[in-house]
Amino acid sequence: MLIPSIDLKGGKVVQLVQGQRLAIESDDLDGWVSRFASFPKVQLIDLDAALGTGTNDALVQQVAPRLKCRVGGGIRSVQRAREVLDYGALAVIVSSSLFRNGQPDLEFAKTLADAVGPERVIAAVDSKGGRVVIRGWTEPVQVTAVEAAQALEPYCAEFLYTHVDREGTMTGTDMDAVQAVAAATSRPVTAAGGITTRAEIDTLDAAGIDSVVGMAIYTGTLSLGDVPAGST
Predict the structure, then answer these.
(1) pTM for the whole structure
(2) Which residues pair with 100 in a beta bridge?
(3) Which of 36, 38, 76, 193 is close enough to 229 for a disulfide, judged by CB 3.0 to 4.6 Å?
(4) Choosing from 7, 46, 48, 210, which is the catalytic residue?
(5) 39: Cβ contacts below 8 Å, ≥ 6 apart
(6) What is the pLDDT of residues 79-128, one digit of tens each?
(7) Per-residue pLDDT for 55 more than 80?
(8) Exposed/middle/buried for 198, CB within 10 Å: 0-12, 13-18, 19+?
(9) In the chain, which ranges are continuous DSSP H helix?
(10) How confident is the model at residue 229 (pLDDT cuts 50, 70, 90)?
(11) Is 7 a catalytic residue?
(12) Model confidence over 148-179: pLDDT tens digits?
């Protein structure tokens, strides 16, 4: 299944290359929300909150009730997770707070799962250079995505794996890396990072893996008409 993404930074919809270089910036948030309204899953990320440089909370509050979305970025406490779910998000994507001193923080993971329900927690095990990266992909930790997924599996319903090395490049994702994470857990895995074509989406779907796509949609390289809402 294709999951369109909406990334927010500085009050605008953006697309970044490898989480750093600005490639696309749009003021048309309502337009993108309308385009994605028929999709059964949409990913909404507050990049400023993820980086700790600000917040787009007012926009998150506007969008969450309008789309069937999972929301991430700066969700570092049980209170914040509850707030975002109360906005209307179906699930929260949690990353940085699941790691402490370079390792999975199983105590916090359990506390969060107990508080909001593991079925509403998506654990992000994003990878750059072979290691999980947190805080807006700026800080590596000491474990691989596979190791993190194995440790965190009891406390979430799903994993988000972004191959940051390919994020925003439209060069295709690393299928071997994605499949390694999927093989390490019984939980569903959603992949992101470089996914560009219908063929890639279909290949991942055949393996039971959903695809988050951003840059290819915003540049028009992948037409939403080519991948109808709810299809592979």
Answers:
(1) 0.95
(2) 103
(3) 38
(4) 7
(5) 2, 3, 4, 67, 68, 229, 230
(6) 999 999 999 999 999 999 999 999 999 999 999 999 999 999 999 999 99
(7) yes
(8) middle
(9) 29-36, 47-51, 57-63, 78-87, 106-116, 145-152, 175-183, 198-206, 215-218
(10) low
(11) yes
(12) 999 999 999 999 999 999 999 999 999 999 99
Structure tokens given for 127? 């990878």
Domain boundaries 2-225, corresponding CATH code: 3.20.20.70
3-state class (DSSP) for residue 186: coil
The residue behind tokens 């749009």 is 26
Which of 48, 57, 126, 210 is catalytic? The answer is: 126
Q: For residue 135, which of 111, 99, 165 has the smallest C-alpha distance? A: 99
Residue 11: what are its φ and ψ, rounded to 5°? Answer: 80, 10
**β-bridge pairing 121-124 and 158-162:** parallel
**Residue for token digits 């599996």?**
153
| CA-closest candidate to residue 5, choices 162, 148, 132 | 162
> Is 126 labeled as catalytic in the residue annotation?
yes
What the block records as the tokens of 99 is 């790691």
Taking the domains of the chain in order of start, what are their residue ranges? 2-225
Contact 45, 93 (CB under 8 A): yes
What crossing angle do the helices spanning 106-116 and 78-87 adopt, rounded to 10°? 40
Q: Give me the percent of the chain exceeding a pLDDT of 70.
A: 97
Look at residue 224 in the predicted model and tell me its pLDDT.
87
